[in-house]
Amino acid sequence: MPEPKARELLDLEDLALHEGATVLLRLKLAQLAAGEWLEVRGDSAELAEGLTAWCRKEGHRCERAQGVAHTYRIEASAGIPATSTSRMEIRESAEPSWGLAPRGARVEAGGPEFAFTLREKREVWARELNAIYKQAVAGQWSAARDIPWDELPKLAPEVERSVAQVMTFLTENEFAALYVPARFIARIHPHYREVVEVLAMQVADEARHAEAFTRRAEVGGAGLGITATSGQLSLKTLVEEPDFTTATFLLCVMGEGTFLTLLKFIGEHAPDPVTSALALLAHRDEARHVAFGMEHLRYVFEREPERKASMDAAVARRSWMLASISGLSPYVHDALVIMAGGGVEPRQIRTGAHRVSELHREMDRARRERLQSLGFAPEAAARMSVYHTKNFM
Ligand SMILES: [Fe+2]
Ligand SMILES: [Fe+2]
């Protein structure tokens, strides 16, 4: 019987297998369908024996060409089966066996299964992820490069201590805002890579905020102030929230939403240009974190409107858990009053106290507005805003 005609020819000359001949073999074989033949010529001494062994390992059949020296024939096998994923089509559910494969790659069968527990699109997705990520990349700033540290004046000791206390409070909140997305990143299936990428940028933003606020407290000479138990209790309920959507709602919509008002307030009333610049740069980042939270919740509510009630309940539940906390810690409240009033003269305290009570009103107004834009009725929005933690985050 005549040999079937080879579809491709490969001349290895004197290139040995251990010198890279397998690269050329694989390149040629990849162009063949299962059952098609490759004719290989080569003068390397070890080829006859090595090629047969290599073909066996790769699953191809190999034989000597009849009557021609230094020539071999390889029948291509079907190769390892692979699943194709699409770069553009985002599936409603992601398979554990796709593992870490980037969307759009072909995934070899038989790979390990990863324990990603968030692998339904409706659990994690949001619109505008690409826009949010691009803005985050373009908006990265550096505490070393972009803050006018040299312009920090010598402030009155009470004012400097108040700024440092506010920075302490901000830093502990930044850590909570870092740990919450960080806890979930490892659970989200990489098929939803845009969510992972946005959250990774969020983690990097919070690390920078924590670094910059701590540095501001130290550079003025007062050093870090006091971390209140009430604040830690509040943040613990946030950091331990097990559900992604609920945690995103409490952190990004309620907490970081409230922080937007706080950072704007600090930007306006800071006694020095360094504190003001820090607050405004952090505000810009937080606006993106809030945008992600809002888009995620919109996506979830469109598909599961009943989840609005569970968010309402989560805010109430957190409020009961924190019932022993009467309000914002006096350390933070008093520091905000002194900072916003510009000193400790009675008239300055009056001004500062007035501004801080205005701050609370504005936080409440903005929270209600945000909740209503997510579709909560005005009464529900008002109740949830009142129940929101007095610690702001
Ligand atoms: Fe932050
Ligand atoms: Fe944030």
CATH homologous superfamily placement of the largest domain: Ribonucleotide Reductase, subunit A
At the third CATH level, what is the topology name of the largest domain? Ribonucleotide Reductase, subunit A
Please write the CATH class name of the largest domain: Mainly Alpha
* Low-pLDDT segments: none
Gap between N and C termini: 81 Å
Structural category is alpha+beta
Largest sheet: 4 strands, mixed
Tell me the helix content: 55-70%
The ordered H/E elements are EHEHEEEEHHHHHHHHHHH
Number of strands: 6
Ligand identities: fe (ii) ion
Question: Kindly state the mean pLDDT as a whole number?
Answer: 95
Q: How would you write the strand order of the largest sheet?
A: 1-2-4-3
H/I helix tally: 13
CATH architecture of the largest domain: Orthogonal Bundle
Can you walk me through this structure?
There is one protein chain. The chain is built from 13 helices and 6 strands. It has helices at residues 21-29, 47-58, 121-124, 129-138, 157-185, 193-219, 229-239, 244-269, 273-303, 307-321, 330-341, 346-373, 378-387; strands at residues 8-11, 37-41, 61-64, 71-75, 82-84, 106-108. Residues 177, 206, 256, 286, 289 line the site of one fe (ii) ion (FE2).
